[in-house]
Structures are given as C-alpha cells and as structure tokens.
Design a protein that fits this description.
By secondary structure, the chain is of the alpha/beta class. The chain has two domains: about 1-40; about 60-185, 3-Layer(aba) Sandwich (Glutaredoxin), CATH 3.40.30.10. Helix content is about 45%, strand content about 20%. The protein has a five-stranded mixed sheet with strand order 5-4-3-6-7, with helices on one face. Strands 1-2 form a two-stranded antiparallel sheet. The longest helix is centred in the N-terminal third of the chain and has 37 residues, at about 1-40.
Length: about 190
C-alpha cells in the first residue's frame, strides 16, 4: 500500500512539473511573438513583391505632422494610393472607411497616400475626404517620390502589409469590402 502512495506522489509531481513547464514555455513564446511584431527582420529584402519588406517612407498629414510607415509596425496596414479625381478611387474610398471602422480595434489601419502631385487642386482632396467622412490617417505625396518608389501605375493601388511590414498582397484598381477582409485574414 505504501508503494502505491509513493508512486501516486511521484506521478502527481511529474504531472505538476509538466503543467508548470508547459505554462512557462507558452508565456515565453508569447513574449517572443510580441517582440517579433515590432522588430524588423532585415534578412527579408526590401521591395514591392509579396514577401518583401515594404519600403520605408515619411510623408506629412494635412496639418504638417510627419508620418513614417514604420509608425504602424505591429499593425496590419492597408496602404492605399489614391487621387480625388480618380473614379475608381471615389468608389473604393467608402469601402475603405467601412473596413477601417470595422477593423481598427483589431490592430489594423488604413493609411491613405494621396498622390497630391497629380491633383489639380488640393482643396478637392479635403472636400472629398470630408464628403466620405474619412477618419483613417491620410498623408500627402506632394512630390510623387513615394508614388514613384511604389511604382504606382494604376489608381487606386493598395498594398497589404502584415504586422512586421511584409507585403502580403497588392491590388491594382478598386477593391471592395469583401476583398479587404480576405486580404486582412491572409495577412494574419
């Protein structure tokens, strides 16, 4: 009888140790994953293809605040290049706003890059954004450098970046809400 108790105690000790070890490893992996979302993996080449790190840039908001693409590291980013005179952009923008409202609490952002160098009048940009009720961040490419760097030839163009700034999808032309959701899920 005494041998049975010893065996049971040893077994309970082993089970307890296994649970303790599992919980500690899980916590350590979670910390590693959290840090990975903020760190840049420099072994991944920078470029414009799916699987590349998106090129870094700095642009200004309408009130002159500087915004870096890397400010959004740790979030899924829909990087949308658009112009106020572009009919497909006008169709797409309300979908972008709806998507942003639905997913902003899920560590996701729409970052709109207005191709300001192609605009006839900058007042048109603000009027359009107000008309649609855009609340996501918008930056202005006054000189067209970022538009050129991202090789934008069709309007609108949207790059989808995962939380580490890696391109997971690219769309030329307008996309709808369902495509945005699928792209978001693919980037996870």
């Amino acid at each position: 009888m005494r041998k049975n108790w010893i065996a049971i105690l040893i077994l309970l000790g082993l089970v307890s140790w296994g649970i303790y070890d599992y919980v500690n490893k899980k916590d350590a992996n979670q910390v590693s994953e959290d840090n990975g979302n903020r760190d840049v993996d420099l072994s991944i080449p920078e470029g414009l293809k799916v699987g590349n790190r998106a090129p870094e840039f700095t642009l200004q908001t309408s009130d002159g605040q500087l915004v870096n693409l890397s400010d959004y590291r740790g979030q899924t980013v829909l990087l949308n290049f658009w112009a106020s005179w572009c009919p497909p952009c006008k169709i797409e923008m309300p979908y972008m706003q709806d998507f942003y409202e639905e997913y902003k609490d899920k560590n996701t952002v729409v970052l709109a890059v207005n191709m300001t160098h192609l605009e006839k009048n900058s007042d048109d940009v603000e009027a359009f954004l107000n008309e649609v009720g855009v609340t996501f961040p918008t930056v202005y490419d006054h000189k067209g450098q970022v538009t050129d760097e991202y090789q934008i030839i069709a309007y609108p163009t949207t790059y989808v970046l995962n939380s580490q700034g890696i391109i997971t999808d690219r769309f030329q032309g307008a996309i709808d809400h369902n495509i945005m959701i699928k792209a978001y899920e693919k980037s996870r």
